[in-house]
Amino acid sequence: MTETTKILTIQDISCYGQCSITVALPIISAFGIETAVLPSAVLSTHTSGFSGYTFRDLTEDLPSIQEHWEKEGIYFDAIYTGYIGSIKQLDYIKDIVASRLKPGGQVFVDPAMADYGEFYYGFDQEFADKMGELCKLGDYVLPNTTEACYLLHKEWKPDFSKDEMLDIAKELSAFTKRHVILKGDNHKEDELGMVVLDKEDNSATKIVYNDKVNHMSHGTGDVFASAFVGSSMIGKTPSVSAKIAGEFTKKAIEKTIGDSTHGYGVKFEQVLPELPDLIKTI
Ligand code: PXL
Questions:
Q1: Neighbour tally for 87: CB within 10 Å
Q2: Using CA atoms, how far apart are residues 83 and 214, in angstroms rounded to an integer?
Q3: What gap in Å lies between CA 113 and CA 162, rounded to an integer?
Q4: Best substitution site from 16, 21, 48 to test ligand 1's pocket, by max atoms within 8 Å of Cβ?
């Protein structure tokens, strides 16, 4: 990272609910990295756990924003994509990556579209197949097991074994330029694992574990991906970045447990002050 490192994140603004851009912007900024945003849609809340939310699709704003950035000569060292508002946006995003990423820049794709064996509202297999094409532009793809199964047309189950997780990560490496970070290795009682696979060096494949917290929260994938992107961009290896991001997310969930009024995202703000220590000690 240099003092001029700039990241663009493309995902929705959920006005309330602690996910997507409202999570990515503060977390990546806390790593000291300038973060620009391209909102894919504006929603009153995230879709899981709420009903009757508003949804303004910004698909047709993307080309004109790109055009303006072209005129201004604006480029990014990394592009990180999350929740995308429409299939058509996936094509626009491919153009944005092709035109706005600096040579040698990194692409992080979180195919945020499903969890716990089901698509989020509004997504389907056609979207997943198209998302697979975007994943192929990613230097890193960061799916949970549900998203991985939709990308691979595989049956999901809540408890893949360690070997099954490794096989899925290997199959997913066809969907990435380089790294697969597959979240949700659940087979250990007290620890949650993720497979960190480098397709150029299979011998470097690792399973990184963090203590498990038995609590379901929304937006934890976005907290994890944002901390992973920040760690990677300050020069940490994929497995160290996965450990830092896993630890950060776990702490944010722990801060949220016990607050019965907080059934949406996680209180990641309270963990931001601990980030410098996490970065130093892991
Ligand atoms: O955290 C994933 C996410 C992001 N954005 C929106 C969502 C969700 C998950 O439900 O609904 C709008």
A1: 15
A2: 25
A3: 24
A4: 48
206 and 179 Cβ atoms separated by less than 8 Å: no
- Residue 260 CA to ligand 1 centre (angstroms): 20
Ligand 1 centroid–CA 281 distance in Å is 31
Helix (H) or strand (E) holding 89: helix 87-100
Q: Which candidate, 177, 178, 179, 180, places its Cα nearest to that of 147? A: 180
Nearest partner of 42 among 14, 83, 22, judged by Cα: 14
Handedness of CA 211, 216, 221, 223 (dihedral sign): negative
Tell me the pLDDT tens digit for each residue of 200-242.
998 889 999 999 998 889 999 999 999 999 999 999 999 999 9
Whole-angstrom CA distances from 196 to 67, 207, 271, 277 are 36, 6, 24, 23
Domains of the chain from N-terminus onward: 6-281 (3.40.1190.20)
Q: Does the predicted TM-score (pTM) go above 0.90?
A: yes
CA atoms within 13 A on the CB side of 248: 37
Concatenated DSSP letters of 99-119: HHEEEEEEEEE---SEETTEE
CB 19 within 8 A of CB 265: yes
Cα 112 to ligand 1 centroid, rounded to whole Å: 7
